[in-house]
Backbone:
């Protein structure tokens, strides 16, 4: 019993580490204003979805690519399709960070994705759990998260009405600002499609089981899923970036003087976000039958809190009224409660 408890604690801590990395990965975007959005996103996606998985798989289990050819076909199709769909959510997320800043974009996208990403795997894979204590705790945690989302959204509206110096708030953030109404469409779309990422991971578990059956470790077998999902996401992301690079004639920015620093920041983004995905994959098996339903919201809600702290430190709320800040802090407090409820769902 004690050993099982230790495993659950380890899984929860790994989910939190994954969330911290996720919450920090957009920070370098504040220093990439010399590049256009499509330049930044090309380097980020290339590093996170192609380079990092190739390195990790090459180190941990180079036979993975051969095993993928023999893995369950239906699960492979689901992983590729959901990864491709998530790719468009990633595009909208990247655009929303440029539109309204790190704090608000992460708040909306991660909270929406967290709620749906917790519910859908349970409904699809273990619907009977809804009537058990663990399932009801997940439902309660999601309901509390929705209240936190509403409060943070209200704070965003108050910030927009404050008419503060937008240029001072943004710093050297890549991309261009947009009205909150347009940004909301981006974050809602991104939140919905980001939830698909966790659903795809949950439905692709036969691939991981197949890997373990053929001698792979728990971590290496989970990576089989990530290879497919991140590869599918890379196709949609890099396709859209290529379109923008040609349309806006911004390919030349890749070779402008002083580019090493820009490439460095882009690769830091890739390591933080890509690393968060692999750490999350390490966490979920340790959280039991409801691993994807508990680990996902726990990771994303942690990321949401970290991103808001980063946004506050960078001055994204500078000049905003105390009332708006109180609403924002209230929303963050509610989300902390949601994290606590979800972390106890499997105990």
Residues:
């Amino acid at each position: 019993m004690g050993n099982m408890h230790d495993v659950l604690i380890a899984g929860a801590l790994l989910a939190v580490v994954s969330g911290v990395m996720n919450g920090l990965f957009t920070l370098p975007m504040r220093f990439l204003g010399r590049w256009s959005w499509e330049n930044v996103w090309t380097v980020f996606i290339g590093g996170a979805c192609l380079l990092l998985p190739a390195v990790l798989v090459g180190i941990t289990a180079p036979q993975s690519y051969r095993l993928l050819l023999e893995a369950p076909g239906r699960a492979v199709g689901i992983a590729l399709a959901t990864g491709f769909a998530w790719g468009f959510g990633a595009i909208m997320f990247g655009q929303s960070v440029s539109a309204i800043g790190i704090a608000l974009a992460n708040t909306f996208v991660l909270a929406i994705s967290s709620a749906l990403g917790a519910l859908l795997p349970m409904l699809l894979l273990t619907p009977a759990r809804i009537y058990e204590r663990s399932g009801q705790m997940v439902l309660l945690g999601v309901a509390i998260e929705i209240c936190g989302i509403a409060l943070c959204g209200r704070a965003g509206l108050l910030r927009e009405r404050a008419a503060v110096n937008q240029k001072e708030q943004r710093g050297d953030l890549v991309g261009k600002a947009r009205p909150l109404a347009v940004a909301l469409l981006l974050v809602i779309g991104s939140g919905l499609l980001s939830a698909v990422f966790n659903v795809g991971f949950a439905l692709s578990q036969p691939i991981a089981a197949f890997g373990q059956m053929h001698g792979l470790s728990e971590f290496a077998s989970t990576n089989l899923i990530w290879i497919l999902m991140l590869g599918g996401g890379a196709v949609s992301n890099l396709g859209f970036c290529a379109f923008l690079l040609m349309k806006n004639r911004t390919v030349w920015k890749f070779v402008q003087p002083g580019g090493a620093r820009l490439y460095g920041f882009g690769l830091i983004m890739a390591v933080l976000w890509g690393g968060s995905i692999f750490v999350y994959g390490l966490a979920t098996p340790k959280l039991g039958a409801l691993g994807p339903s508990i680990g996902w919201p726990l990771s994303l809600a942690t990321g949401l809190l970290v991103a808001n702290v980063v946004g506050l430190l960078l001055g994204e709320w500078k000049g905003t009224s105390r009332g708006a800040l109180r609403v924002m802090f209230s929303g963050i407090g509610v989300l902390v409660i949601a994290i606590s409820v979800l972390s106890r769902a499997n105990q």
Summary: The longest helix spans residues 218-247. The chain has 13 helices and no strands. The two ends are 11 Å apart (CA to CA). The chain has one domain: 2-343.
